Automatic annotation (TrEMBL):
<feature type="transmembrane region" description="Helical">
    <location>
        <begin position="56"/>
        <end position="72"/>
    </location>
</feature>
<feature type="transmembrane region" description="Helical">
    <location>
        <begin position="146"/>
        <end position="167"/>
    </location>
</feature>
<keyword id="KW-0472">Membrane</keyword>
<keyword id="KW-1133">Transmembrane helix</keyword>
<protein>
    <recommendedName>
        <fullName>Phosphatidic acid phosphatase type 2/haloperoxidase domain-containing protein</fullName>
    </recommendedName>
</protein>
<feature type="transmembrane region" description="Helical">
    <location>
        <begin position="79"/>
        <end position="100"/>
    </location>
</feature>
<feature type="transmembrane region" description="Helical">
    <location>
        <begin position="120"/>
        <end position="139"/>
    </location>
</feature>
<dbReference type="InterPro" id="IPR036938">
    <property type="entry name" value="PAP2/HPO_sf"/>
</dbReference>
<dbReference type="InterPro" id="IPR000326">
    <property type="entry name" value="PAP2/HPO"/>
</dbReference>
<keyword id="KW-0812">Transmembrane</keyword>
<dbReference type="Pfam" id="PF01569">
    <property type="entry name" value="PAP2"/>
</dbReference>
<feature type="transmembrane region" description="Helical">
    <location>
        <begin position="173"/>
        <end position="191"/>
    </location>
</feature>
<feature type="domain" description="Phosphatidic acid phosphatase type 2/haloperoxidase">
    <location>
        <begin position="77"/>
        <end position="188"/>
    </location>
</feature>
Amino acid sequence: MPVAFAMAVALFLLLGLVGGAASLFDVSAIRAAAPWRDAHPHATSAVILFTKLGYAPPLLTMAALGAGWLAWRREWVRLVAMGAAVVGGRIGIELIKLIADRPRPGFEAHPVDVHSQSFPSGHAGNSMLTFLSLALFVAPERWQRPAVAVAVIASLAMGATRPLLGVHWPTDVLAGWLYGAALVMLAWWWVRRRDARSAA
């Protein structure tokens, strides 16, 4: 797990270095999304509605409900791990945004409000942090695999809305997914190690 985490960090840093307005891949993707939005206004409205679920109030409400369930069951180790991943991860995203200071795409007016810098995507990172944490730490073990699959698919869909709406570069979103998944898996690895030691 530490090796995989180190590789994730290296890839995250690479995405931070190569993406943005200087990236042909990023610019091409953003420019391609604008005609789609113009041609599909109803679908765009649905995308805007869905992307609002990735803001702090809905995600933190989901996390708080999951944390409440763990507290009721007195699963303190999982509660601490989940809290560290979700809350610590959110803080980390905001700090990285300040440090990286990557401007958002600015080819046209944004169809949704944005208030921070671009790298990494908070929607991608925070949705992965929240959904994957709920799947691993809160879902019953017999439902864990399908819960993880649903969590990943939901986060992928959430992150994909951002370049589609022209408010994030694709590399921002890739980095957000990677960041969120890496932190949650690190927390999960820590919990499993503690469980193994307790059982020994």
